[in-house]
Amino acid sequence: MTVLVTGGAGYIGSHTVLELLQAEQNVLVLDNFSNSSSESLKRVKELTNKTVTLIEGDIRDKALLETLFTQHSIDSVIHFAGLKAVGESTEIPLDYYENNVWGTINLLQVMKQFNVFKFVFSSSATVYGDPQTVPIKENFPLSATNPYGRSKLMVEDICRDLAASDSNWKIALLRYFNPVGAHESGRIGEDPNGIPNNLLPFIAQVAIGKREALAVFGDDYDTVDGTGVRDYIHVVDLANGHLKALAHLAKQNGCVAYSLGTGKGYSVLEMVKAFEKASDRPVPYKIVARRPGDIACCYADASFAKEVLSWTATRNLEQMMKDSWRWQSNNPEGYKK
Ligand code: NAD
Ligand code: WQD
After folding, report:
1. Cβ distance 187 to 282 under 8 Å?
2. For residue 15, how many C-alpha atoms fall within 13 Å in the half-sphere facing its CB?
3. Quick one: which of 53, 121, 56 has its CA closest to 257?
4. For residue 268, how far is its CA from the centre of ligand 2 (angstroms)?
5. Most buried one in 1, 122, 159, 333, CB count within 10 A?
6. Whose CA is nearest to atom 27 of ligand 2?
7. Please, what's the largest Cα pairwise distance for the chain?
8. Are 129 and 183 in contact (CB under 8 A)?
9. Cβ–ligand 1 contact at 13 (below 6 Å)
10. Measured in angstroms, how far is the CA atom of residue 226 from the centroid of ligand 1?
11. Does the beta carbon of 126 lie inside 6 Å of ligand 2?
12. Environment class of 47 (CB within 10 Å of its CB; exposed 0-12, middle 13-18, buried 19+)
């Protein structure tokens, strides 16, 4: 039996493919390389000494999906493919809805056509909006403040409706908190295009000298030191969460959401300090205005995933930072040599 992994050449996808291969699963990857290259999976093959079939193509291409489901004995899908930049989503919302919402509907339609009902979806902690309290539990109210977040919420709603319409569906909505770090080999990691939007890749590029200083977005939040607090989770822990969710689907009924985080929050300045320690490099920063749309504090109550999936994050902040730095320093230009 084969797991179809859409977006499997990307950051979280490539780490998950590696863990799936190590768990002796057959893996078929579909990726259009809009935000990745085949180099990540070439390295995954080297690291695991296993094969993975990689198809260059788009989830919006129904004929291609039908061919894949005809040619391979796919029995479950892990769906990473999509666009993920919050700022960009406000500029080109139609692209976000087309890729993330319509692309997913297309995929679900073909799954249904081929009687494949096990689905693991990359949702995001962004669906909790600006939570009234922390830690955040799965049953907190959901909302979105930008097209990216809305696209995730729409897909969640579609999945809930689908599962309610037909009890064959078994769907895990995985709400990731803030994925960081890289595989401990230093061979695969996050390879952002242009100026990184997210904190960790930006800090890493400052430490290596590619950028002058980190702009810290606001130091007047109601947090430990005034800077934003987030629940950073090691990407390998996150990848393993997918394997646990997939294994659990056989026993699960309907559509269930799980928060995947560590349950601990760190501020921007705590992250800077921890990275300086791990890299032994200075990370100069300056405080600038708040970034519109940012919230003060966000971290998970990770107990539901622990109880139901027997999954818990095991890598601490030091490991996240060391692994990020190993990836950044061994691959200063990412996958581009
Ligand atoms: P990524 O951009 O590295 O990976 C996404 C992959 O999907 C890329 O390889 C891209 O080429 C591919 N892709 C995009 N559109 C496609 C399409 N229409 N057809 C086929 N392939 C397509 O991003 P990531 O960080 O690995 O994120 C994976 C998923 O997790 C995304 O859905 C993202 O929204 C979600 N997520 C990410 C984060 C994060 O901070 N990284 C947090 C929460 C949720
Ligand atoms: C983290 C903290 C910033 C950059 C986003 C998406 C979310 C999810 C993960 C996909 C915040 C501060 C950042 C910088 C800074 N993605 N920061 N200077 O905003 O928590 O979440 O990525 O689903 O949907 O919204 O992550 O890494 O951008 O920011 O001071 O240059 O770092 O203000 O407090 P965020 P982030």
Report:
1. no
2. 25
3. 121
4. 10
5. 122
6. 198
7. 56
8. no
9. yes
10. 31
11. yes
12. middle
Of 152, 174, 222, 268, the residue with max ligand 2 atoms within 8 A of its CB, to mutate for a pocket test, comes to: 268
156 close to 104: Cβ distance less than 8 angstroms: no
| pLDDT digit string (tens) for the chain, length 337 residues | 999 999 999 999 999 999 999 999 999 999 999 999 999 999 999 999 999 999 999 999 999 999 999 999 999 999 999 999 999 999 999 999 999 999 999 999 999 999 999 999 999 999 999 999 999 999 999 999 999 999 999 999 999 999 999 999 999 999 999 999 999 999 999 999 999 999 999 999 999 999 999 999 999 999 999 999 999 999 999 999 999 999 999 999 999 999 999 999 999 999 999 999 999 999 999 999 999 999 999 999 999 999 999 999 999 999 999 999 999 999 999 998 6
Q: Which residues are catalytic?
A: 148
- Mutation to probe ligand 2, out of 80, 86, 177 (largest number of atoms < 8 A from CB): 86
How large is the C-alpha radius of gyration of the chain? 19
Q: How far does residue 80's CA lie from ligand 1's centre (Å)? A: 5
